[in-house]
Amino acid sequence: xxxxxxxxxxxxxxxxxxxxxxxxxxxxxxxxxxxxxxxxxxxxxxxxxxxxxxxxxxxxxxxxxxxxxxxxxxxxxxxxxxxxxxxxxxxxxxxxxxxxxxxxxxxxxxxxxxxxxxxxxxxxxxxxxxxxxxxxxxxxxxxxxxxxxxxxxxxxxxxxxxxxxxxxxxxxxxxxxxxxxxxxxxxxxxxxxxxxxxxxxxxxxxxxxxxxxxxxx
Amino acid sequence: xxxxxxxxxxxxxxxxxxxxxxxxxxxxxxxxxxxxxxxxxxxxxxxxxxxxxxxxxxxxxxxxxxxxxxxxxxxxxxxxxxxxxxxxxxxxxxxxxxxxxxxxxxxxxxxxxxxxxxxxxxxxxxxxxxxxxxxxxxxxxxxxxxxxxxxxxxxxxxxxxxxxxxxxxxxxxxxxxxxxxxxxxxxxxxxxxxxxxxxxxxxxxxxxxxxxxxxxx
DNA sequence: TTTCACATACGTATTTATACGTATTTTTTG
DNA sequence: CAAAAAATACGTATAAATACGTATGTGAAA
Lengths: 217, 217
Description:
Strand content of chain A: 5-15%
Oligomer: homodimer
Largest sheet of chain A: 5 strands, parallel
CATH architecture of the largest domain in chain A: 3-Layer(aba) Sandwich
Shape of chain A: globular
Radius of gyration of chain A: 18 Å
Order of helices and strands of chain A: EHEHEHEHEHHHHHH
Largest interface: A-B, 43 and 49 residues
């Protein structure tokens, strides 16, 4: 092992950042160097303007700038930075979205330490890391482009999930860096395709097509 | 400070358990002793059959046995164990549910280290710990009694179910022979009570409170 | 009995969603 | 490469929801 892998951590959960940091710092083989941890995507992107980073371990759900738009920006502007997603959002459409943006691993939050370390090693080498959530089979399916059972495109599914989780058009536009007009047009198309005539019906549609998940109580 | 507080950690996120453990173990004043960490509620309940514990820091969303039923069982059978909730489920109904089961703190996942430690100290002394999510005001409101689990009157629940199933104000008025103004006022009250800020959130609320049922496809 | 929660009802101003049309750019696919 | 599909964006008009205030009748509980 020549030089340690420069790892960044992006998650709004303070304790989890600490846990990840510890995991990398205390690696027996000294393979990692944590170059920073950040509470949102925005801070990390600021960091990247000045300094470098090999692999970033990132959550999706964050305030200010969520994982979606952060990964999108990294993918477009700084493709050298490899992304590993570590999240409790295990929905298929999100995984698909992230895989298409070139992330190298998609880990559920109950992943063990070794799994996380190995995914970072894979990502450093620009190699896909597979696990129970993102299997090689699923990866192939996504890459070979399959038809969505819901009839919605990926973008549409994504916006559906945001509408159904209670954001309005302007909030969605801000969240994923689009013009409100565009979001509005997507919503129009979504309503037509799903044959929903209002938001309430769309939320039910989202639950029934696993675009949203009902957290059991 | 006589003897250290026996703290247990229950969360399905491995890295987060590590982070919490570190936080308690590395306390300057040696006030805590982590007596175990568990990946689900079931394992923790098993532990409690044999050994003791002062305070448990617990997530809600977990496989096998989630926080809801775990806290419910602790509350009924082992009320000596104080519970601190640390979660990303910031929904009011969940907070209300947990407060009614006697948890001493309800922390969002972005809480800082000191906040978490202080909440455990409070819980050890059987004192409520308040923060931006669970304020003293909210706590009073919950304690001084909303009756319905949903907080809604029967009429309001009925109208909620109609709104959530996709009817608009005029359609609802026609369906149950009311003036649209009345329906509108009910809707206003419903939104206030449920603290929903739009229809999408209300639909989710309806599913979560069994006001609506999701028919499997 | 009188207070209180609930259900009823109206008015009004503001915000948000919906439903059209149009058009350019990007990505995918045959 | 060419065609098709998807994603982007704007304008404009109408419909609906939302958030206030106010008021009245009714039945149950303190």
